[in-house]
Specification:
By secondary structure, this protein is an all-alpha fold. Helices cover about 95% and strands about 0% of the residues.
């Protein structure tokens, strides 16, 4: 029973980590768009 609980915790942590990665990619995309916008604004 204890082992099963540990496994389920690992699965939950992995899912949360995946969600964080997706958010990070979204943030990187936004940052890239912002940098491109600033470049066109300066140029």
């Amino acid at each position: 029973h204890e082992f099963r609980k540990n496994v389920s915790l690992k699965v939950i942590n992995t899912e949360e980590a995946t969600i964080d990665l997706e958010k990070l990619h979204e943030w990187e995309d936004s940052l890239e768009k912002f940098i491109n916008f600033v470049r066109t604004f300066i140029a």
